[in-house]
Write a structure and sequence with these properties.
Distance between the termini: 24 Å
Strand content: 15-25%
CATH class of the largest domain: Alpha Beta
Mean pLDDT: 93
CATH topology of the largest domain: Rossmann fold
Radius of gyration: 23 Å
């Protein structure tokens, strides 16, 4: 395989301590052959012209980091607009929240053309290009239009909804055609892969050729599931950091008489946080032994705060937390500790380790790596219990978790109670199976599986026209 070129909306520097497992894994792959990571710089040039942007280059070891500034108009239409107000809600099954505003689609196309134009000039003939996530679905088509013939793969980190939802997206025909400019499309789950197959067959009259290969628009593409994992060892090492040790000592001191439940999410309507709070309230109402005993610590990191739907969600959560604490709290005990801020990654292992139960209950999620991080941080001698939504991508792999329907609030409360009461032997058995699986299918396995599949695709697949 030639040089690896990774393209994503934002890039990560694998040398930095705050870099997550994904940045480290991709950085390892980039370093092996010498590589390039290309993406938006995070900077907005308020006086810049739409469709234009300044490139910045720096080295991170043997990896070249290349970033591109965006104009205000491009950022508003491509990122805030089409990516996060149209595709994000639609792909999370929330067409009722989708805004297909005027100019969003054109801006999305324009920025993808800009990315392609700037990137094409940097590519070498034998490069392998790996594009990430919904912001850049049409990038391969734009690169092909510029004459690029390299192998190009795409990985979608969020869910792919079923055909009726995809077909409701204005411009869905163009998006569907864009997938066929790739050689390999990676999806999080088998369900997502099934949705892709149905979508292209039903809407594009694609021919299913077997072995996850489809032909339409004069091109062929392979589309299959590659469930993403975490770097278990890297995350466990974080538990030995000063920040993690100090946080664990503080939590064990302040909550020595409590049983902790934890939720760690971005503040997003896909995460089902209001329903989680209501299930916890139901737990306190129906199982009074948890009063003055169980405490839910909910981290809800700020995200997309310029979008109105997120302001409504924040007010809803703050109101629910206040109601529950007012109804059930005591002078020395608050049922919910709700924190609307970002927690340092180095402090998360301590929070997971101290929690008897983790609540990972999204209404829809591509994978949700919090579930895997929580399992990684449990001790084998006295592990906690993972309560996991059936609608998280992780549920396909993590069957030993307590799977729950987050829409059924009474049943969710019952499941939380079961988690709190679970005998040690059962906890150990479930945890051992989960830990083995997340170790086997970690982020390094995911990276290798995808890149091996991409390199195995015959050139005729890429050159069909």
């Amino acid at each position: 395989m030639g040089r690896l070129v990774v393209v994503s909306n934002r890039i990560g520097d694998p040398r930095k301590a705050a870099a997550g497992g994904l940045a480290v894994a991709l950085g390892d792959a980039l370093s092996q052959s010498g590589g390039l990571w290309f993406g938006w710089s995070g900077k907005i040039n308020e006086s810049g012209a739409p469709g234009e942007g300044e490139l910045h280059m720096q080295r991170s070891g043997s990896v070249q980091l290349v970033t591109l500034d965006l104009s205000q108009a491009d950022h508003d239409a491509y990122y805030t607009g089409y990516s996060n107000q149209a595709l994000w809600p639609a792909f999370h099954y929330r067409l009722d929240l989708a805004d297909f505003g005027a100019g969003f689609f054109a801006g999305y196309q324009r920025v993808n053309r800009l990315f392609a134009r700037k990137l094409a000039a940097l590519l070498q003939p034998d490069d392998v290009v790996w594009v990430h996530d919904y912001h850049l679905i049409p990038l391969a088509a734009e690169l092909r239009a510029l004459g690029c013939r390299q192998r190009i793969g795409f990985f979608l980190h969020i869910p792919l909804p079923p055909p009726p939802i995809l077909a409701a997206i204005p411009g869905h025909e163009w998006l569907m055609r864009s997938f066929f400019a790739y050689d390999l499309v990676g999806l999080q789950t088998r369900s997502d892969a099934d949705h892709f197959a149905r979508f292209v067959v039903e809407e594009a009259n694609a021919t299913a050729l077997g072995n996850d290969e489809f032909e339409a628009f004069g091109r062929r593409v392979v589309a299959r599931a590659f469930p993403i994992g975490i770097d278990v060892d890297e995350f466990q090492r974080l538990a030995h950091s000063t920040e993690s040790r100090e946080t664990e000592a503080m939590l064990r001191d302040q909550y020595s008489k409590r049983r902790l439940l934890v939720g760690v999410d971005r503040l997003d309507y896909s995460k089902g946080l209001p329903r989680r709070f209501r299930a916890f309230r139901e737990l306190l109402a129906n199982y009074p032994e948890n009063r003055n005993s169980a405490t839910l610590i909910q981290i809800a990191s700020p995200t997309r705060e310029t979008v109105d739907a997120y302001d409504d969600l924040r007010r809803d959560l703050e109101g629910l937390a206040g109601e529950i604490n007012g109804d059930y709290g005591e002078l020395d005990w608050m049922p919910i500790r709700y924190l609307h801020r970002t927690w340092a990654r180095r402090r998360l292992p301590a929070l997971y380790r101290c929690a008897r139960v983790a609540l990972v209950t999204p209404l829809r999620d591509g994978m949700n790596l919090v579930a895997k991080e929580y399992v990684a941080m449990q001790t084998q001698e006295d592990p906690g219990v993972l309560v996991l939504s059936r609608f998280a991508g992780a549920a396909e792999q993590m069957r030993e978790a307590l799977l729950v329907n987050p829409y059924d609030i009474p049943a969710a409360a019952q499941t939380i109670q079961r988690a709190l009461q679970m005998p040690l032997a059962e906890r150990r058995e479930r945890h051992a199976a989960l830990l083995q699986r997340i170790r086997t299918n970690d982020v390094h396995w995911w990276r290798k599986e995808f890149l091996d599949a991409l390199s195995a695709i015959e050139p005729r697949v890429r050159e069909t026209s």
